[in-house]
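We close this part of the discussion by returning to an individual protein. The sequence in question and its structure tokens are set out directly beneath this paragraph:
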Amino acid sequence: MTPQKTKHWTVVFYHDRSGRRPVTEFLDSLPPEDRAAVLRDLALLEEFGLDVGWPHVRAITGRRKLWELRVKSTSGAIRLFYFAHTGRRFVVLHGLVKKTRKVPRRELDVAERRMWNVIERDQE
């Protein structure tokens, strides 16, 4: 019996209609060691998909479809918000370096607004 090869997921970054990629800009602003930590955890998402669990990912309570990638870094806690989209894709919507115990609501609002923007664009 030959082992079955699993199809990996793809991680893509949100872009607005003008082509701006705020998540890429956020990642570029991080120190190299923090960017490496983020890329390592994004690779986990690509390899294991929906099977990645705590402590790496967590569903956002009260926000349908929205998930949080929890990255430990030298700068503190980095959070990337994403959702699973069609075609085995994770769309990374927003990123931040967490400064407080709770993620500010406005940061979650940004991620959720971008998620619905992606979904609407795909339906056009």
